[in-house]
Amino acid sequence: MKLQALIQYGFFLLLLTLLVKPLGGYMARVFQGGRTFLDPVLRPVERLLYRAARVDEQQEMDWKQYAVSFVLFGFCGTLLLYGILRMQRFLPWFYPAYQTTPLTPDLSVNTAISFSTTTTWQAYGGETTMSYFSQMVALTAQNFLAGAAGLAVGVAFIRGFVRQKTDELGNFWVDLVRALLWVLLPLALAGALVLVWQGVPMNFHPYTQVTTVEGAKQTIAQGPVAAMEIIKNLGTNGGGFFNANGAHPYENPTPLTNLIAMLAIAVLPAALTNTFGRMIGNPRQGWTLYAVMTALFIVGLLVCGWSEQKGNRILEQHAHLRTGPAANQPGGNMEGKEARFGIAQSVLAAVVTSDGATGSYNSMHDSYTALGGAVPLVNMLLGEIVYGGLGTGIYSIILIALLGLLLAGLMVGRTPQYLGKTIGPTEAKMLTLYVLASPLAILPLTALAVATKTGLAGLTTNTGAHGLTEIIFAFASSLANNGQSFAGLNANTTFYNLTTAVAMMVGRFGLAIPALALAGLFAAQARRFAGEGTIPTDTVIFGALLLATALIVCGLSFFPVLTLGPVMEHLVGFQPLA
Q1: Does a structural domain hold residue 502?
Q2: Total domain count, the chain
Q3: Domain that holds residue 238
Q4: What is the per-residue pLDDT across 434-484, written as a single tens digit (0 to 9) for each?
């Protein structure tokens, strides 16, 4: 691992940590009804929206009403997006000479579900499939709306620990509006202006035809890129305007835009730990969660960076090419990476995007070494607990913490508590549903893909261990509502369009509903004072318990398939399995 890479990693983590407290405090004020500097401008707009939608901001919801509103909102967004995609050819700014990928019914369904669940899994190339109208009115709008809905659920979950002897978790529509107006919209406007300043296009010009130096004809796509680019990261969505995503010079032209993109992915989910600590009245609790997240983040960075810098062992064995560091070369696995970013920034982006539920990659992860590519996969299989998605990250890591406390309580014979709330039999059932949702979705879908001709047909480039990794990566990415892919898998087929859509819905609603149910159960409890047998949850020991629980749950669920995928590839290379 080079010193230069370590400095870049340290600088990013320093910036992220410095932003956690101010942003976390700001979001706590927003969702607790406190005053902010934007109130004079936004409060009139907020009241106007409530009047138009006939929403009573004083009327709160129980967890069932909140969950129904969340699901219906996502369903309506999916239907609207599907309708726009199916009618795209009749809408403005559609250029049939350039939008050549047909939006079939199954691809449209997949894309609609993808963007309404913040997955933004793209089984298509953006510039060859989507018109400007679809990019702006359909996809970018859903980046805002779906991201705000996820943030609202995260805040409602926190209220379950703040409140007592009540069944109210807030009002979904109020939380949605405040997430949009006070959090996402101001940050997106400021970020888009910076991106335009750095050279990211923001126009509605037709594609440009040019003649290269060699005399060949080339089509240069452009469009309203800056508007979509910033919110795809802030809303933990990740869908690229262009097929190359963050590796495209129009989406990511400079080192500054690369840094902004990575900060935008991680900063709001990370800051929600501070929001959590402030809302429950104990900031140390939030910092403990943030420390565990960051510890896992650092481990992923070091493992992935070491593996990629070491080079590709398979090329050395079979092609006799030295790819590791030497006296006359820096070495490392540069396949699939932008020369502008190199190994260090490519690895940093890969870890940030896989931890942050945002598939906004700037290198091709399919070309990583076996262990290097395993890091983003494991990050997603951990369940969005390392910063995670907008709203989903905070409840994911707390649910794993609750599971750890439950197991520890069973071992010592005491009823487990967290922040004065008891984890009883009903709460344990909700935890079980949450923990089992991921393996019960990912593993059967992966088995179906490798056991059927239609599933195996997607392996157009690789078979064997790497092919299996490509398949499980697709379903893990879909369930984590992440969207990045090992691009060697051809996913634009009816089989993968439908099966990944199932995984996306489980990842969005199958995890959020148990979280809201738990929040409702905790809100109904009276807060108990900590006794001598209560495990303190703001200590290093608790952090170690949380860390161990996360790794054990992931290992028990996915270690066998990881052994058949990236571990076997590391040992035997790209050879097909017998």
Answers
A1: yes
A2: 1
A3: 3-572
A4: 999 999 999 999 999 999 999 999 888 888 888 999 999 999 999 998 888
